[in-house]
Specification:
By secondary structure, the protein is of the alpha+beta class. It folds into 2 domains: about 5-40, no CATH class; about 45-180, Alpha-Beta Complex (Nucleoside Triphosphate Pyrophosphohydrolase). It has helices spanning about 85-95, 150-160, 165-180, and strands spanning about 5-15, 20-25, 30-40, 45-50, 55-65, 70, 75, 100, 105-110, 120-130, 145-150. Strand 1 (about 5-15) and strand 2 (about 20-25) form a beta hairpin.
């Protein structure tokens, strides 16, 4: 198997949130695709955050693309000079007011959608979290913090009785697998 060759590339737009690039590609079999679009986004981190009482710390917020309110795990982009672990702990603190003295456990690193996006996500498990701060939200954020028993959240996912996104569901099941080993 051989990789595609990019023969031309241009940006259709660039924004602080992401870029859209149009590539012309030549495939190994000789076919040319003149308009292959790639969304360029920053890598980000997310985490399943569990309290000592085995409650998962979730953020509920409006998501305009989905036209609804979604229950999600805390997530965000890494800031310049931060490690992934520092970034996820900052995001958790800002979005929820929670923190932990336990070291974040890396559950996995995955491409988001390598067919059309260039970014990765690293998913962590944070244990023994406790509330210690006030939320520090951006002016565009309105976030309600929700605590649900870990197993109950799994039941809600299985029943599809809450609105969430794939990254939250997959992170939950990765964390459940790690916790069941211990």
């Amino acid at each position: 198997m051989k990789a595609w060759k990019t023969t031309d590339s241009e940006y259709l737009y660039k924004t602080p949130f992401g870029n859209l690039r149009k590539d012309a590609c030549k495939l190994p079999n000789g076919i040319t695709i003149d308009d292959y679009y790639v969304n360029e986004f920053a890598d980000w981190v997310n985490a399943v955050v569990l309290t000592k009482d085995n409650q998962i710390v979730l953020v509920e917020q409006y998501r305009h693309g989905g036209q609804g309110f979604y229950m999600e795990i805390p997530a965000g982009k890494i800031e310049e000079g931060e490690s992934d672990e520092e970034g996820i702990l900052r995001e958790i603190r800002e979005e929820t007011g929670y923190t932990s003295i336990e070291k974040p456990i890396l559950l996995g690193e995955f491409m988001v959608n390598p067919a059309t996006q260039n970014n990765k996500i690293k998913t962590f498990l944070i244990m023994d979290a406790f509330e210690s701060f006030e939320q520090q939200l951006d002016e565009t954020e309105t976030i309600n913090v929700k605590l649900i028993q870990f197993e109950e959240f799994g039941r809600l996912l299985g029943e599809q009785s809450i609105q969430t996104q794939l990254f939250t569901a997959s992170a939950y099941y990765m964390a459940k697998a790690v916790l069941s080993e211990g």
